[in-house]
Amino acid sequence: MTNYVNRAGIEVDPALADFIETEILNALEKDADAFWQGFAALLGEFAPRNRHLLETREELQAKIDAWHVDRAGQAHDAEAYRAFLEEIGYLVPEPAPFTIGTDNVDPEIATMAGPQLVVPILNARFLLNAANARWGSLYDALYGTDALDAPPPVSGGYDRKRGDAVIAEGRRFLDEILPLAEGSWRDISGADDIHLSDESGFVGKTDAGLLFRHNGLHIEVQFASDHPVGRTDKAGISDIVLEAALTTIADLEDSVAAVDAEDKLLGYRNWLGVIRGDLEESFEKGGAKLTRRLCEDKIYRDADGADHRLPGRSLMFVRNVGHLMTNPAMRWQGGEIPEGIMDAVVTGAIGALDVAGPGMGRGRFGNSRTGSIYIVKPKMHGPEECAFTNDLFDTVEDLLGLARHTMKVGVMDEERRTSANLGACIQAVKDRIVFINTGFLDRTGDEMHTSMRAGPMLRKGAMKGAPWLKAYEARNVGIGLAHGLSGRAQIGKGMWAAPDLMGQMMIEKIGHLRAGANTAWVPSPTAATLHAIHYHREDVFEIQKGLPDAAKLDELLTIPLANGVNWSDAEIREELDNNCQGLLGYVVRWIDQGVGCSKVPDINDVGLMEDRATLRISSQHIANWLLHGVVSEDQVMDALTRMAAKVDAQNAGDPAYEPLLENRDAPAFSAAKDLIFKGVSQPSGYTEPLLHEWRRVKKAG
After folding, report:
1. Which residues are known to be catalytic?
2. I need a surface site. Which of 122, 398, 415, 598 has the fewest CB within 10 A?
């Protein structure tokens, strides 16, 4: 039981209160009493509005449920359905033409195109790795992954044959992207033997070699004849370093298991460490103790002898929690405060340290060079909820003494009502929006929950070819371009989930650029380095100029029903097993170990980077099939039991793992059952309420 301290009527966890007052407000030279009074006034205005928005979600869902129930057995009438959605206010009128007004945006977001990482903020080592992924070794990325079409390296030290294949591939890349005025990169004998063309993109020299810029991204060709690789290279090239993860999202939401004050404080403290520039993490590797810190900037000298500085780290966003959840870290008027409001105030205050003037606590490196704080806001349903976030950020800026629109917002287009009203959602935050992004898992989970009572849904694999999904991805780009995001904000695409399948990623993920995305998510720094190649091969901003208008709304509103499909028993069992295995494989780590994102083996033993959205799509799919009699509770329990055995076998080598089969009354297996059997009644099909409940049970012992 937390013994709270009282701050202007807000009950605050003592450690969190001390952190805010000592490490943030003192550094900002802000009066603590005035801050808490302002926070309390903010809660008085926004907590009731937050509650009203959640009630509106449930009211709309109840009306949609009733509409489908009343028409059970009838053919779907798309025209009547759209008219109904307009009548109840689920669909709002399209706004008149407008262009976003966001300014003071860093080039990594506005005018550059490149990979984006998302990293769990509770893991300091992962957070540092991601922040430092601005620059990545192409040689390392090729040597250690299947992106290189060559025999894998032989274990036991450096494999010279594999290394030669890496060097050859590096030369092919240089000839493709940075062709010489004469000859080939394959034939040079050293840095002095390079004949650059006027269009080479050469910008200067670093201490390690030559620096080029192409499609807005930098490439450093490093020379070192005494380097283990440089010694084997006739030109002495030791590495090719690519500017890779331009931006990184430090995540307080789907990739973390943060259920109480202890968890939130860790997340806030790590974010503060990034902003101050002093975050570090020590660990043992190969018997040696290593300490990881944020990378220094990269310095180069141009042809006139002038020195220039390039950022050594990703530009950082922080992803706040959505509107749904509350957290016991703070209480107000007898209940937990909305977690999204708490995140906005605390992460905004930490971000203020980055944009404060000299002597006011500015970090060692600085994050934004334009005086902006970048916050991603997930799981908003429609323009009214986006307007709430805009008003909330206004009020936080006033509380912290920040200029209007210092706090920028990235809108996750992952809920059906946001997708269907995307233009109006963008308009609601038009002077602070810096990105829109799609996500298959959450968006499909909401698609199924919204139309839960319309009938049984397609299998998950078939869902990827459904008309609504194609329209969703196309509309996200088309609507963003129509409202002026190109050159001012990011239009993003979702995650490549398989970190071990880099060869396949290199074939497929370039499609995100060709669809008009100037950023896309990747699962690791290595993947960011490889994905950067795509941005050299395609000029996204040129592609955006030639893209068609957004797909029609009617296509988006097509419900992915399995009309007339008669699955075999084997097909039903296969789908159930796939869903249950993925659900159990992830939930057991979330509940038992507090790990919100990790590489989880799928049913075919392929490691996938999974987060909470995995549970939403899997649990909603099973809940839908249960509701419509495609499967029975007995079939689901049978699948859960069999897949528990498989997940136990997949995790047999993990000393921290607690077997599911031996603990079917324990929190992890209980949570999995609840997510399925209570799935229909969960708000918007979200998994957070049940996960938080069972994680707290587990933490309480």
Report:
1. 319, 611
2. 398
